[in-house]
Specification:
The complex is a heterotrimer of chains A (338), B (278) and C (462). Chain B is an alpha/beta fold and 278 residues long. Chain B has ten helices and eight strands. Chain C has a two-stranded antiparallel ribbon with strand order 3-4. Classes of the chains: A alpha+beta (338), B alpha/beta (278), C mainly alpha (462). Strand 13 of chain A pairs antiparallel with strand 2 of chain C, so a sheet runs across the interface.
Chain lengths: 338, 278, 462
Amino acid sequence: MSPITWIALLAALALIVFLPRAGLLAQVRHYRTVRQREQVEDALKHLLDREHQGSHASPESLAGTLGLSRAAAMRLVESMEAQGLIETRGNQLHLTAEGERWALHVLRAHRLWERYLADEARMPLEKVHTEAHRREHRLTAAELDELEAALGHPTRDPHGDPIPTREGNFAREMGTPVTAWPADSPARIVHLEDEPALAYEQLLAAGLRLGQDVRVLERTPQRVVLSDGENEYRLAPAVASNIYVAPLPEHQRLPDQALPLAELPNGQAAEIVKLDDAVQGLTRRRFLDLGLTPGAIVYPELQNFFGDPRAYRVRGALIALRKEQAAQIWVRPLEPTR
Amino acid sequence: MPSKKVSLPSDACQTCPAYAQLEQMGIKVGNFDRVVALAGNPNTGKSTLFNALTGLKQHTGNWPGKTVTRAEGGYQFNGVKYKLVDLPGTYSLLSASQDEEVARDFLLFGQPDCTIVVTDATALERNLNLVLQVLEITDRVVVAVNLIDEARRKGLEVDTRTLSRDLGVPAVPIIARTGEGLMTLLTTVAEVIEGQIVTRPLRVSSTPEFQQAVSELATMIEELLPGIPNARWLAIRLLDGDTRVQKALLSGELAEIVARQSQADVQFSKKIALAGRQ
Amino acid sequence: MQANDVLAKAELLRRQLSSSFRDEIVKSLYAEAERIARRAVKVHGDRTYDLDQQIDRLITSPLTGLPIMLLLLAVVIWTTVEGANLVSEALAAVLFGIGDAMRALFVQANLPWWITGFVWDGVYRGLAWVVSVMFPPMAIFFPAFTLLEDLGFLPRVAFNLDWLFKKAGAHGKQALTMTMGFGCNAAGVVSTRIIDSPRERLIAILTNNFVPCNGRFPTLIMLATVFVAAGFQGWVTSLIAAATVVGVVLIGIGFTFLMSLLLSRTILKGEASAFTLELPPYRRPDILRILYTSLIDRTLFVLWRAIQTAAPAGAVIWILANLPFGSSNLAAAIASWLDPFGHLLGLDGVILLAYVIAIPANEIVVPTMMMMYLGAGMMVEGPGTAEAIRTLLIGQHGWTLLTAVNLMLFALLHNPCGTTILTIYKETKSVKWATVSVVITLGTAFLVTFLTASLARLMGWA
């Protein structure tokens, strides 16, 4: 090959490696800053999590949560301290005001994403956490505001955890673990702990969900039995301790004859009592806009030949709903007048 | 300007001025005197009315959610050129769906001189939900009660006078498919725009705590933007967290609208005065 | 007073309000609407008998629902086949007659052979084929389809098919966008905007091409008439042809479900989103307007696009067929190079080449193919009749029933036309999804035709 070819080749190679922004080196550098930022944010979240539990993180717990070696965790702690995000007191790690602000931002991003993924992208609930974890590092505060507005300013994520506001305020109350709830007094599920994932999946598989009204029937060291008036749920106490409940608001109790619209017999008129709390965001609004408001009279008029969906006469129009949607609308059957 | 003169099929209406005639202008845009928006639920014959007025053959299939973008056309009535904007058919103006945003933003930021809300006489209750929401945004509304022939077939009679009194804005019975009642509708629209008909739109109140919040916020908005016509609606949107309204407030877009609106009225009365002298 | 103060106040107030304040707003709006409507609307007579309700009972009932839907589809397609046959031949005779006369004039005027060839054997013949093959079925199918659309029948179809779409992990409104695809796949893709969930909308977009659009119906109708229904006499012919096309459409719907299921289990995983659909009251359709919109807006629009691509395609074919290459011409060379691959799929090289040339608009596949076969110089008597086409394809180019069947399957499943691909790109704003739409359709087409061809050969049918 002639020298000129060699020089041209070398120049091209140098360009590929060193080109600002698009060059390989720049790409690697960019990737590393992104990785570092994600690591810092995950560390902040861990610290915040510990503080909410009333304890404090340590370099060891940090290494364990992030899957780092002890040396790498120490380096991370030093760098975060240098940035003024955390303070070490003995072996304890504390968030500074700046660190807490940032941690709340990430938490807010995580929970808003979870809400989005569950409500709008309709991702299975057990996958929402991982995907939200991937996305939480990407948005600025302003973009988060837009996401929040688009979702209709939700206050809780799909697991029932409160979503911090832009200023970092949020309600801390999490309800009581069902294992500490008095037997036979009605309660509403306000939170399903999503970690450990195994227990969470078990709860979902059993059919338990947020906003469900339950009663504790039996509580022994071997098992906890819950009932929602229809099904009984038998759970190991270790699993049941992941369910958090709160007292039922008096005015929101359902009348005794209430049943989901999906179970209303064909041709039986009924009055809508309430929309289930599990329906949130756009879906809830669409229901309301279609006139499916409490007090409206519904009448199942048509049935698809597979039995699902059914079409209901509501306020003069015929609206088709799938079984899943109709199950989220509580109705009270009316006396047969037709 | 070559434009064919087409008179509508003779109308049952007796009050129509004899000289009234409709000039179909198709898509010639620009040089319009007035802007009229066309809102309504899906399947109310909104697009049929649009075609009947503008002569634009926009297709109207019978299934929900077709007008994904808005269509524009024009008509001439009593020497005034109107631009007609067909908004997407929606059940409501409160949600974050694309259709509803387009409709809502046009009513708010497009500042039409009048809005015709097309309703289906066979399902009035459902349609009034949207009417009431439009009344929150703008005073200058005419309700077109369409499909009265279908309603009659089903044994329903709509008393538009009662309706009009309850809503505080004119309600006109029409059959868009045959053109019945269109002359009255256009006359009413013109009268609302010129102020010959004064509307007193009904404003629905929700829970006391919500009303309290709305009026607190609305007072602040009126202070910030004196002369804004729909402070109440803006307050509701802000409470709802509408980012588009938030941005418009911060960027001064809303202030511009207030200024532009008073200007437009002056310009138009000058134009009419000139035309009268000729 | 600053704008920021107002926003801060709004934030503060929102947090103080109970979380159900949006519910309360809508509730009070509807309560007021109910009150006003009750005052304004007077009910006369007995409302228990409602014609709409009776019709709805009939078309959604387990016994009559499915047959009625199938019957309507069959009637629409049969009308199209029967009507198109009558008009197509007459139209072809007229157009080709004009072409031959003009060609003779050119020859008389002693113009160079390549001008005469380029204009009359290339561009004009391409146009004449497209107009005579495309126009009649479209002019019948579009109004019939628009009639069903205006009546309010399509939402009922969506209602009936929703259960299947749910099982496939797709949105119920996909039935609406699918039926729009019968008119034009690009229009079908645009109509997916009515689906809010991004995941389900993508499924609807990617599978829209599995229903044959109006541009592909003529291909199917021609093949069904000329090959499948060839052995029959009289009115039975069009009945068999229509049944064949209905069968192909059903296969297409089957693939729509299958691919939706596959997508929702693999790259577009997720749960079904909330589905609400209004079943609007039936409306008396305005026949004049239907004719106007379906003929002017739709038929002429699609035909014009076909003409725009047919003229250059005709030119390309003529040039390819007249450029010497080795011992024959370039078209033959490319076709024979593609032949082994085509044979594997039960097709041949000319067909594949025609598909490549027809990427801008699927409508021109058959015309392109015919011109290339004819380009070899063997002119048949009056190219429009079924008998002439049979002689040409079976007698001279070795077609079998397998070729016809696989060509129908290929026409049903292969990649979207250029316009549709561009529309997919515009709607998704993603090169990736536009590419995926081509890959999955083309992949399915290759796989299915390869399997049927192999099976047929294995069983000794072909």
